[in-house]
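Thread amino acids onto this structure.
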């Protein structure tokens, strides 16, 4: 662990097979991931900051991009910042117009998480969210374990329990730019997603409720293609998201590979595996430097609290909510 003047902890995992991961206890945030390119040159493939003090802390004002952070207790958007649970109305605290985004304010990403264990292979962090936090029912305890194995695979495992019935959807929010140049657009990256359906959204980026097939649309990444090919297509859903900002309804179940991203110019490649039912593909449209990073957030479906036919995100007392996501780095062909 390395300390900064801000007082936040910084932890380094690895290097393993040339992969080195840096994270902080502020927001359980990934700060950088160094990965070699085709020529063996190491480069940081995440958007972020070198000092935790540069990230927004609890109580800070201003815009939020959630760079590399853990979002919770419920990632993505909830319509009207409200839902009904067991016949009772739950009113959340809105932080994006009338809606709640990424668990509200200040959010898990602005909290300093407690360090449970840390070494060169793994870091385990814990955060306690009291009953009523941002309107959420139940006192919830969440843990995040970041580990890097001998093959250089980064694994993020989330775990949560609550003393009352609630909903949970913890998400890691890294912005990838495999070129290693944070000022370079990600439109030249190639992407494949194992999903034949996605959730259409309205003008507030909230799901309309019925999964739509991706075949024949700019959202079809069932075969690898450049991100830039459809990002400005004349399509109502592209307009609604100002590019890509949609949940993909992942095929299959259990821990399985769901997304493949590569950057032919540098040769870097990334495979993502998860046990979650959804993946939010966000092309960084609202970043200060537009579209210089992209997110592939493994998650429960957005606004599932208001759509009983979506995969459930409910957590009851005595039960455990868990998720696992793995990031495997390598080289692409071509």
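Threaded sequence (334 positions):
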């Amino acid at each position: 662990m390395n300390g900064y003047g801000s007082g936040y902890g910084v932890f380094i995992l690895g290097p393993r097979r040339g992969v080195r991961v840096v994270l902080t206890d502020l927001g359980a945030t990934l700060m950088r991931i160094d990965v070699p390119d085709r020529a063996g040159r190491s480069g940081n493939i995440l958007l972020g900051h070198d000092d935790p003090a540069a990230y927004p802390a609890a109580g800070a004002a201003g815009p939020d991009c959630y760079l590399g952070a853990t979002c919770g207790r419920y990632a993505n958007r909830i319509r009207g910042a409200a839902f009904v649970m067991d016949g009772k109305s739950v009113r959340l605290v809105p932080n994006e117009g009338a809606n709640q985004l990424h668990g509200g304010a200040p959010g898990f990403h602005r909290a300093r998480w407690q360090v449970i264990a840390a070494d060169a292979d793994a870091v385990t962090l814990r955060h306690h969210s009291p009953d009523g936090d941002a309107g959420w029912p139940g006192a919830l305890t969440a843990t995040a374990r970041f580990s890097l194995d001998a093959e250089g695979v980064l694994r993020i495992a989330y775990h949560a329990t609550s003393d009352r019935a609630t909903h949970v959807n913890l998400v890691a929010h890294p912005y990838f730019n495999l070129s290693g140049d944070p000022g370079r657009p990600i439109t030249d990256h190639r992407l494949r997603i194992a999903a034949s359906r996605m959730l259409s959204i309205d003008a507030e980026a909230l799901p309309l409720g019925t999964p739509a097939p991706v075949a024949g649309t700019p959202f079809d990444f069932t075969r690898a293609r450049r991100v830039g090919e459809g990002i400005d297509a004349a399509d109502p859903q592209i307009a609604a998201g100002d590019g890509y900002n949609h949940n993909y309804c992942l095929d299959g179940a259990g821990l399985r590979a769901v997304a493949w991203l590569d950057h032919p110019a540098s040769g870097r490649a990334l495979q993502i595996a998860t046990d979650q039912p959804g993946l939010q593909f966000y092309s960084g449209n609202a970043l200060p430097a537009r579209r210089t990073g992209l997110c592939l957030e493994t998650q429960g479906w957005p606004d599932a609290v208001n759509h009983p036919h979506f995969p459930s995100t409910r957590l009851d007392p005595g039960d455990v909510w868990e998720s696992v996501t793995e990031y495997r780095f390598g080289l692409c062909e071509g």
